[in-house]
Design a protein that fits this description.
About 30% of the residues lie in helices and about 25% in strands. The chain is built from 5 helices and 12 strands. The strands form 2 sheets. A 7-stranded mixed sheet has the order 3-2-1-4-7-8-9, with helices on both faces. The protein has a 5-stranded antiparallel sheet with strand order 6-5-10-12-11. Helix 1 runs parallel beside helix 3 and helix 4 packs across helix 5. The longest helix has 23 residues. The model has no long low-confidence stretch (mean pLDDT about 95).
């Protein structure tokens, strides 16, 4: 069997400062060590439960956060940014998906670093009428590939999303009191709970209790940017409809195509931000 792990940083325990999140940040190495320990604990348990291969998609920022030399031999590590399909690259063909270090969507109260894919450019994304977090958006794409999300671990504020993934296990890695503050259990206790919930997830998979998150097609996507200039650039594409100063919408035949279009819109907005801030 093959398992897929997507790991972000903002939802990991103890990560509360912007200095944790950037390669040159004073606390970045601390964040890398935490991410690596958590990924390794889950990967080792998956292997113990019969998974011959575990693909880990390093999915925050420059996507080079997990320490490669600390990964077991059965782990394949996806690194680098930008890359097609971002946080779920190389997931196809997996039997199970697990999300680690995930955070709440933009605008969520009492959540650390709440944002949706691009905190610098995006205010809201809705897919088929569902306002999504990165967790739900990634689960939608994996669902199209028949891959169920069986375990999510992250900020407690993200747990509400699992109402749409009721079969998935959840592990709280921290509870936020604000955007830049949170309380977390000990790392050893977290590792024990992750191993326990990983075993429970694999048991659900064997009993066929996990489900891929599927959407009706075509896929309708609504995006609200933080700046009207980003919507102006998005509108240059003939299939993009401008709803308001900051809002656009489009329709895609598949969730994979919708995901790719969203990536292009975010990159374009980032380009506008760079040009106008020089």
């Amino acid at each position: 069997m093959k398992a897929f792990i997507s790991v972000d940083l903002e939802g990991l325990p103890y990560i509360v400062s912007r200095e944790h999140l950037f390669v040159k940040g004073a606390l970045y190495n601390e964040a890398r060590k935490v991410a690596t320990r958590i990924v390794r604990a889950v990967a080792e348990e998956l292997h113990a439960q019969g998974f011959e291969e575990v693909v880990v998609a390093d999915s925050h920022g420059p996507m080079v956060n997990v320490i490669p030399e600390e990964m077991p031999d059965f782990v394949s590590l996806v690194r680098g940014f930008p890359r097609p399909l971002s946080m779920v690259a190389f997931a196809k063909g997996s039997d199970l998906a697990i999300f680690l270090g995930y955070h709440a969507k933009a605008g969520t109260s009492y959540a650390t670093f709440d944002h949706t894919y691009s905190g610098a450019t995006i205010d809201r994304i809705a897919i088929n009428g569902i306002e999504v977090s990165e967790c739900l958006m990634n689960a939608m794409l994996l669902g199209e590939w028949e891959i169920p999300v069986g375990l999510v671990a992250g900020d407690e504020a993200l747990k509400k999303d699992l109402e749409l993934l009721p079969w998935a296990e959840f592990v709280t890695l921290k509870k936020a009191s604000g955007r830049y503050s949170a309380i977390s259990p000990s790392l050893r206790k977290i590792e024990e709970e992750l191993r326990e919930k990983t075993r429970a997830t694999v048991e659900k998979l064997r009993k066929k209790e996990l489900k891929p998150f599927k959407l009706e097609k075509p896929i309708k996507v609504e995006v609200r940017f933080l700046n009207s200039a980003y919507a102006e650039v998005a509108e240059l594409l003939p299939f993009i409809h401008r709803k308001s100063g900051k809002e656009v919408e489009f329709t895609a035949e598949t969730m994979e195509n919708a995901y790719k279009i969203l990536e292009v819109l975010i990159f374009a907005a980032a380009g506008v931000s760079y040009i106008t801030s020089r």
